[in-house]
Amino acid sequence: MKKPKNGIFRRLYLRNVTAKIETNLRTEPSTRSDDTVVAKLIHGETVVRTGIGSNGWSRVEYNGQTLYAVSSYLMIPEE
How far is 70 from 20, CA to CA, in rounded Å? Predict the structure, then answer.
């Protein structure tokens, strides 16, 4: 499993999560640079979360890419 420099991600079973608000998807789990933003989720859009970091970030799969989103901006949809 890939471990980013800015946090350790633990493996999860694949889980759908939904954006609570407009959420930036980044190439690394950090807000230091806007250059890392490569996509945005709109409110209600769903992606697959593949990991949760100890640093407040989630690893997600989006359009075939592994990206990162702030975990508090995501929720597990009601089933």
Answer: 11
Closest CA to 9 of 62, 60, 77: 60
Which H/E stretch holds residue 17?
Answer: strand 9-19
Residue 78, pLDDT > 90, answer no
d(CA 2, CA 46): 23
> For residues 24 and 12, what is the distance between their CA atoms, to the nearest angstrom?
21
Beta pairing partners, 69: 58
CA angle (74, 22, 72) in 5-degree steps: 25
Whether the model pTM is above 0.70: yes
Sign of CA dihedral 6, 24, 41, 75: positive
